Here is the input.
Amino acid sequence: LQVEGDVDQRRLVREAQDGSGAAMARLYSLHWRGAYRAAYLVVHDAAAAEDIAQDAFLAAVDALDRFDRRRPFRPWLHRIVVNRALDWARREALRRRVDGAESVFEPLPPPEQTGGELMAALKELPAEQRAVVVLRHLLEYTPGEIARMLELPRGTVNSRLRRGLDRLREAAEAGSLAEERQ
Amino acid sequence: MRDEALSKVLREATIPVTPETEARGLRVVEAAYAEREASERGAPERDDLENRRPLSRLALAFGIAALLAAVLLSPAGAAVRDWVDDVVESPAPKPEPELARIPGGGRLLVQSAVGPWVVQPDGSRRLLGDYEEATWSPRGLFVAVAKGRTLTATEPDGTPHWSLTAAARVRNPRWAPAGERIAYRSGEELRIVAGDGTEDRLLARSTAPVAPTWSPWGDARLAYVSGDGKLRIVNSEAGEGLTGAPALHDISRLEWGAGGTAILEASPRELRLREVRAQKVAPGPALGNPRTLALPGSGISLTGAALAPEREAVAAVVTHWREHGTNSEVLVFPPGADKPRSLLTVPYSLGEVAWAPDGRRLLVAWPGANQWLFLPVGRGKPRAVANISRAFSPGERAASFPRVEGWCCVR
Here is the structure.
């Protein structure tokens, strides 16, 4: 998902800062899908994922003048997306504990999914593990970069990643076994 | 399972997304960007104000809320939380999870992305249909709704009575207090139609993109802003102009209220009242000199304003744009006062404000917190209701924050 070189993105940020709506739209089109997918894979709620992706871009607009042009845009955006998704997931978990019930409006059932067992297993992971798995294996950041984005010790990132991957591996193997039995 | 296999699944897993999902976000981001540009380069064009400001205001509210929420709730936010605590106060009440009743009673008309809803006093709600705008009839017996070039009158349960198709897009329908006429804008024209859908006719060829407002006295007088920027009052039956005066620059809201004695004009930066008084000799009303209502501080935007139904009190919502954070304030100007009383200050941007029909409470939208605030103007306990977006967009993937179109009819 490395959509364009850093140089091109710095140029787009500079042009957006200088008033180019086209550059802002281009940044959006380059990054929205990745942001939305990352948010969805952490929160597993389409409406929330859309809000989170949108919020991240609005934050980008709001902070455009203060944005350091020497920094790459993509990790800055993803940092907002994943932290926001984590906040949402934590609030949702808290709300469920407090309310003791699901929302009165059930989320839409997801369509048939590629990698069904794995996606189901991902959904069952704690949000903190989902976030590092998504950052590492969807957005392809290194553990060191993830540690900086989430303000966590690198060891914590590695342990969350390891525990998450172990559980995903178990789910994938169970799925394979079930297919073999059929 | 290899890492590459997991990456492939994460990249290719089917997730619920449509091109419209992406396009919706782009529209909001473009609007926010346009507002940023406009604020940097000076005042926006009037068309921009009408077409973009409500959306971009919402967008900015979400954006700033998101940014602050992301910063404050994440571990990285610990260091900045202190200064936020220093610069904003948050006396907002603890929110209830859903609207179980409307404080003070009455019914709400709420426009969401999926259409207008009627909310009953017990909080139950009904979607009227796929319409873009809605307005109550005077006693809440009907609702006028608009979509594209079509104006429709429906029962509050959504049963349509009649429809008409105009030559251009229908905007800003407003039902006259006596119930016999509906004024609306179609393209640049101002038109009126009888309450039964007959006698549709032209009243003015050129209007500014501001909703017209009827005299609360129940007569035929209608105030609007003409295309040349004048506040005009006409006799809608005779089609004759009665009086006029220059309207506020960049006016975005016009409201005739306070028992018919005053007209409120609001722009993103300014708020003023004009007295309306009967003339001893001429048949029409006379407009007094405008009285500017002082908004506190500099670097602010007026995001909502409303004139009380029976008194000359004005409620206003302002956003303070500060270098290190944004907060919003709900203000009330008591009758005759040029300076306001502050009711509430909260972080992030607030949205529109509406008076309860009895003038005792305000409903203030708080998109950044996804809440409605019900604030007593005198004694009473403020209430907050959470999860507003989702309540009015069930099943929608993009639960945008709805707009309160009217609070009707305490009986």
Notes: Confidence is low (pLDDT under 50) at residues 42-90 of chain B. The longest strand of chain B covers residues 314-322. The two ends of chain B are 67 Å apart (CA to CA).
